[in-house]
Structure formats: C-alpha cells, structure tokens
Amino acid sequence: MKLINYTLKYLSIALLLVLSVWAVLFYFRMISEIQNSLDDGLENNKMLVIKRVNKDAGIIERSGFSEHNYQIKEISGKHGLSFRDNYRDTLMWTLNDEEMEPFRMLSTVFTIDDKYYEMKIVASTVGEDDLVESLLYGLILLYVAILSSVLLINNLLIRKVWTSFYQLLRNLRAFRLDKDEGIKTTKTEVREFRELNDSLVVLAEHSVNTYRYQKQFIENASHELQTPLAISLNRLELLAEDETLTNHQLDAIGQVMSTLQRLIRLNKSLLLLSKIENRQYGAVEVVSVVQLVKSLINEYDDYAETKGVEIELIEEAELNYAMNKDLAAILISNLLKNAVIHNYEGGNIIITIKKYSLTISNTGKTVPLNEERIFSRFQKDSKNKNSTGLGLSIVKAITNLYNYQLNYTYSGRHNFTILFKKAV
Amino acid sequence: MKLLLVEDEVDLLEVIKESLEKEFFVVETVGNYADALQKLISYEYDCVLLDIMLPDGNGLDLLAKLKQLKKSDNVIIISAKDSVEDKIKGLEMGADDYLVKPFHIAELNARIKSVLRRKFLDGKNTIELANTRIDMDFRQVWIAGVELALNRKEFDILSYLAVNKNRLVNKIALAEQVWGDNIDGADDFEFIYSQIKNLRKKLKENSAEIEVKAVYGIGYKLIIL
Asked: What ipTM, to 2 d.p.?
C-alpha cells in the first residue's frame, strides 16, 4: 500500500469517528437551541394573547387550532389552581403537507373574572427525523470534501516533497554492489530525506569498499598461496625421484601430491573467479564456438573414452561470439568436464550448437540437481573428492560477465544451456 | 650450461636448484634485485630464471637492464602472477618464456631446455637419446634411422618425457602438457595409460633403446636401456 493511501486509510477512519461524535453533540445542542427559542416565542405569544383577551373576551370563543395557533377553553378552578405551565412536542395535521407535522405546544392557565381558562399555543417546529436526515447529508458531504481535499493536497505535496525520495528509491533499486559505483542522490529541502540520502550514500560507499576489499583479499590471498604451493609440489616431485623409496611410500607421496594438486586447482579457481569478477579479462576477440567445442572434445575424448562416455556434437548453426578466448575455453570446458565426471559408464553427452545457444546434455544421476544451488560456490557432490566445487560458479561468473543466460533443466538428462545475446 | 636463478623465496630457490642440478646445470642463486644485478653485470649466463616480485625491486627492471647491457642471456620469467598483461609485457621486453607458479619440475625443465635448444642447436631442434632421435620442429621420431609413426598424443608424451629423461614426470604434469590445461579437473587419469601403452608397444617393436617406465602411483619416467 502506498504511503499516501496508508495515511488516508487511518485518516478516514479517524475523521469518521470525530465527525460522528461531533454530529451527535451538534444535534442535541441544536435541538435544545431550537426548543429554547421556540419556547421563548410561545411565552411571548401567550402574553400577547392574554393581553388581547383582556380587551376582547370574544377571542376566547373564536379561538381554535382551525384558525389560530392557539386554543382556549374554560376549566374548573380546582384544576386551574394546580395547573403548571408546560411545554411539550406534539403532532398536528397540516393542510399544506397533508400529514402530521411536529409542533411545539405550550399549555398554560390564566384567569379572567375569576374564571379559569386553559390555553394551548403551538408553533411549528422541525421534525427530528428531517433534522437528522439533513444533518447526515451535510455530514457525508463534509466527510467527502475533507477526504478529497486531503487526497488532493497530499498528492500535490507528495509529488513535490517526495520526488527526491522516489528518485532515491529508483537509484537504490538500480544499485549493484559489483558495479563499483555509489548511490546518486537528488537535492531536497526536507531534513529527514537529506539525512536518509546522506546515510545511504555512506552505507553504499562502505559496502562498495568492503566488497572491493574482499575481492582484493581473495585475489591477494590466492597469489600469496602460489609460492608455498609451488615449494610443496616441487619438493614432493623431487622426493618421489628418490630411488630407494618403496612402492608403499611412493603411493603415499602420490596421494599427498594429488591432494596438493587439488589445492592448487582450488586456488587457481578462486583466482580465476576473482579475476572474472574484477573484470581483469580484457582482450576480446571473435570466438568460433563450433571450433572451440571441437577442439575441447578432442582434448576430452580420451578421458571420456576411458570413462565409457560417448560425446556427440550436433551442429545446427555457426555460432561466433566476441569474448575472451581463454574464458570461452574455460566456460565450455567446465561444462564438458562436469558432463563427463557426473556420467556413468555407457552414458553419453550430446552437445547442440544452435544459432544463439549452446546446450550440453548428459546422462547421469536420475534425480534433477537443485537449480538454485548448483551455481553457488562450493556446492559439490560429496562423492567426488576431486572436484573443487567452483566449476559451475566459474561458468556462472563468465556468463554473467558477458550477460549470457545460463539455464539448467532436467529431462531425464541433465541439460545446461547457454543463451548468447543476439549475434555480433 | 650455466643458469642464474633469481628468487626471493629461499625454499623455492633450494628446491629448484636441487632439481636443476640433477640435469647437470651449473646453478647460481640470488635472492634479491641488487645481488642479481651485480651477477648479471659481471657474468654471462645461458639462461636466467627470473622472479618478478623481489623484495627490493621488480624483475622486469632487471630484464630491461639486461637488454640495455646488450647481454645475450636468455630469460624465463617465473611469477606468482598469472596475468595476461604481465605475460605480454615480459615477452615484449625480451623474455623467452613466462612460467606461472606453481609449476611442475618437468615443466620448468622442458621450458629451460626448449630455450637452450633454440639457442645452441642453430636450426636443428632435435633431442637424441641412444638410438632414438626426436625432431621437435617437424614432430618426427627416428629409431636407428627408421622413422617411427606416432599420433599427436604419443609424440607429445614421448617428447615431454624425453626432455625430462631419467626424471620422474608427474602424470598430471603430463596430462596438462598433452591434453591441455583444462584437463586438470578430471577425476582420474587412466586415459594417459592407454596412450602410454601404445607408445611403449611401438618403441619396443621398433627396438628403441629407450623405455617408458611407470612409477607407482605418481607418473612416468623415460630411461635409456
């Protein structure tokens, strides 16, 4: 829900409550004001009528609600003495509306020549239901008017005041840690937004620096590891040349060597990953994917053959892309290597090259891989102790670098597809 | 053959020296820029193995100095930095080769010998072992004057082992040399064996006086019978 609608929601509920309470109070206050004023009028009327009766007693005879707004009739003295003036609401038939209408009626008693007369004087008053009705309409009108003006003002204000906020939001959404840029902000006069802008700029800067530092750290650490790895490997290779070693000892050395090789490969992979992510692979040339795949198949066919895996190439189109040649080779070779390693004896690999895509499809385990996790670092098949767990991360990093799309699907076979952008 | 090894890591310096001495090279070692410059000015070397990152200077500056002095020493750069720019820069400055750490001893041997062959055997890039002659440029093998037909992989294996004759060659080093760097993630190296088997058979059938010997669990070694 947008901020403006959100405030409006609560504002409308609050307004409804306030206006309703106000309406009830206002209604009673108004009713009492009307009655007071009517009662004063009736009192005045009473005095006028009594004055006229004193001059002309015939009025008593001529009185009656059919002609006047008063009616006088004689009552007994006993009754007259105990009578007190009173006001009450009543209904009377009106000719103009042809229905019963509310009236205010004053009943009083006066004496002329020791005779007691009871007089009733009426004044037309407002109907309570009419009053409630018009009050309700007025209230609804007010309610709508207030809400729509709030909406209008808010909208105008938001457009003016919140511009920088929405601008910031857009920039935040576009912000990428690996793009090495901070966040751009627009000037604003609102203090809160200015503080938000400043905090975000600092936060972004800090994150970018941390990210850069970490990337740098991995690269430096890998570089620092190269020399000790070289020393260990070469020392072992020299040791293995000792003629006096037994087969048992040679076997042990061989095992340490292959572990060391794995370490070397892991280190190389980390270095490669940080170099890709640091965009240190510049030289781009047009690579013929078909040629490259053919030469890689040539490199891998002995390996595949001893594993009992057949490699088939389906060439549907020429595919030429501008990219770094080494990275192109690493990209395809990692996928191919995986397809061989995670295969079974008697299985096969089908490589399909289309106009904009390369698919490497292989037989293997009969369960699909976890699509979300396979491209993460160090996600590996526990059975394969020789894998670094970085092969597919590297593939992903390379496709990201060139904005190619990388998909995995399972159809009884494992299919990895690289969708290239429109051809160069 | 006299080599100068410029490397600031003492352990690496020692192990490389030990290995190179097995090849009967005379190896002198220095651990810093100043000493290296001194040696390069005073003496002639057939090949200089040069680490780029030295505590008191840059190996590339030494290379520049060497070219400035118009010395004919061949240079192989040894670097922990696997950067294309550095490689290109080093080669453009006149280095003969660029080797990234960590490397196999067999690889270092092969690179040094390739440089030295080019330097001394003017135009004749061959290796002779007993009755076997390997022509590196034309990729031909002759046993007692008769040409032996080998496929590409067999030739690559034989020549790599020949360069490292009597030395144990790690099977991974061999795989990388013959099948390419990308093969190193393979989960086993059985596939080398089938090529070796063929090669052995051909050598034996043609009565070569050399043999490819398997060293249990580690790799292969070419020996002269």
From this structure: 0.89
